[in-house]
Amino acid sequence: MARGSLAVHLWISVYTLLLLSCHCFYLPGVAPEDFQKGELLSVKVNKLTSTKTLLPYSYYSLPYCRPQHIVDSAENLGEVLRGDRIENSPFVFKMREPEMCKIVCRLTLNAKSAKEFKEKIIDEYRVNMILDNLPLVFPIERPEQEKSIVYQHGFHVGLKGQYAGSKEEKHFIHNHLSFTVKYHKDIQTDTSRIVGFEVKPFSVKHEYEGEWNDNIRLTTCDPHAKRLVTNSDSPQEVGDKKEVIFTYDIEFEVSDVKWASRWDSYLLMADDQIHWFSVVNSLMIVLFLSGMVAMIMLRTLYRDISKYNQLETQEEAQEETGWKLVHGDVFRPPTNSDLLCVYVGTGVQFFGMILVTMIFAVLGFLSPSNRGGLMTVMLLLWVFMGLFAGYSSARLYKMFKGTEWKKITLKTAFMFPAIVFAIFFVLNALIWGQKSSGALPFGTMFALVFLWFGISVPLVFVGSYMGFKKPAIEDPVKTNKIPRQIPEQAWYMNPAFSILIGGILPFGAVFIELFFILTSIWLHQFYYIFGFLFLVFIILIVTCAEITIVLCYFQLCSEDYLWWWRSYLTSGSSALYLFLYAVFYFFTKLEITKPVSGMLYFGYMLIVSYAFFVLTGTVGFYACFWFTRLIYSSVKID
Questions:
Q1: Does 378 share its domain with 423?
Q2: Residue among 240, 8, 223 nearest 115 (CA)
Q3: Angstrom distance (rounded) from CA 482 to CA 496
Q4: How many angstroms separate the CA atoms of 375 and 17, rounded?
Q5: 3 state SS for 482-536
Q6: Tens of pLDDT along 321-373?
Q7: Are 246 and 134 members of one domain?
Q8: Distance in angstroms (rounded) separating the CA atoms of residues 622 and 638
């Protein structure tokens, strides 16, 4: 099978990534292809998907009509991780040559095949197909909006219903497909480029006269008699010993849409006002926090420092010198400093990966036509960003007077990936148990382990070696030998309370966009508004930094110098709200009933929340680290 040689695809992915960063060129499968009239078109089938089970299956896991030889298309790493299984199909299209009532095959269902079809119909599985790298879509008109069409991925395997006058629920299969291929014609060369691939599925109990043969004419669908399928009034029932005849129509339609714009209608967001509302809402939070940070900076750096010995009242003196009183302890290494170094290094790795991915996406490199490209690039960037993870964790470790840099390097290289890999391995075992195509083959598992041990770990060591060779970061003030006693804190300065409060605003800045991302992932809808996403990402970073600085200042003013871990956890706690929102989304938007599917959802969302915690925590930590060094280096401590 082509899937076995995944190492080759892995190196192709690495090479593609390197080319992406150097040259501007068409990716394989993205260059326009011109078709002559009558030229054979390659229609491919992809996985069966369902929003009720989240478990993808290969198209030929159902007893559909098959070509003489099933050929797997070469899949990249991202496609395999997504569960894509792209194979050839028995459908024969010829450019600009319409077909009516073309018979694909005739099947007689047995009890087993009927049961398989019924299960997929109950779970609302959709069939996905591809033509010239465009996914098959089912257009749905929105009656409340003029000329507004929403495109859904693929078409349902079938539907449930009752016959007139009967209460017994039956299962009907979509056995007639009415395809529409939209093309843009070049008048000079008479060639065409495909710009759309749509379908309308029907369930029809086909009938014919006499014995079945290869050249038989159907009475229910006959182009010679101009009898076409336009409805599902006489549907094809699924059951044991039921005869099913699969047919299709193919219509070609000229379109004004140019090849370069063919994805625009797929990716059109009808509710872009919500995204603008999200950005404005987030910007208001940022402006509020920026005002608070500006006031603090003015008080501490200008007013307080310049009028160091000219404080107006005793009350003001107590407030403004609170943070100065702990100058001898504020840079004392925290408890579990090794773990903090590891998490900060991992957070830097994540930040670098997401930032570069976002830039690629905004510039249009990660086109939706390059299936699996986003996931492949993210995975490879994560591996290469191990260099920065090792460097940042080693620098911090040396500042804490650490000496065993190899130990901290190993922890940085293994802690976060090992936890994620363990969860992922359990989830993959569950998918294997369901015989889903979403289960990773052994070759892919080997490729992931190779990326981790063969590239990521050595790069973490290189970065760590470079970071540890650098001179240690010097503290702006000296640390006392004896720790200062922390006075009793007010209830609102309790660590747990302030940490939980700190996570609300960063989550509030992103939760509207989060809804669209979750909908894209779990409800299989198109998402390609990376411009909005990049803007929201910048707002998230600024919000995490500012809320941590504000709460860190209040903490130091109350003479509590244990800010290291609290700064990380303050912004990192937004991940808790993200996971709680994921729980809310599960019960309000998804219709998942199977325990395995629920475990998959919460397992993947746990990984996402953990990654979000590491990212936001690191941003908060570095903001607070910069802030404390700035204010303590700006005043003369007697």
A1: yes
A2: 240
A3: 26
A4: 12
A5: CCCCCCCCCHHHCHHHHHHHHCHHHHHHHHHHHHHHHHHHHCCCCCCCHHHHHHH
A6: 567 777 788 888 899 999 999 999 999 999 999 999 999 888 878 777 777 88
A7: yes
A8: 27
**How far apart (Å, rounded) are the C-alpha atoms in residues 439 and 56?**
9
Q: What are phi and psi of 110, to 5 degrees?
A: -105, 180
Reading the block at residue 299, the tokens are 């008080």
CB-based burial label for 107 (10 Å; 0-12, 13-18, 19+):
middle
Distant-in-sequence, close-in-space partners of 575: CB < 8 Å, separation ≥ 6:
503, 609, 610, 612, 613, 616, 617
In a domain, 481, yes or no: no
Q: Which pair of structure tokens corresponds to residue 517?
A: 């991302």
**Confidence (pTM):** 0.86
Residue 172 forms part of a structural domain? yes
How many structural domains is the chain composed of? 3
The CA-based angle 334-338-342, given to 5 degrees, is 120
472 Cβ neighbours under 8 A, 6+ residues apart:
398, 399, 401
Each residue of 469-511: pLDDT tens digit? 999 888 888 878 887 887 787 888 888 999 999 898 899 888 8
How many Cβ atoms from other residues are within 10 Å of residue 485's Cβ? Answer: 8
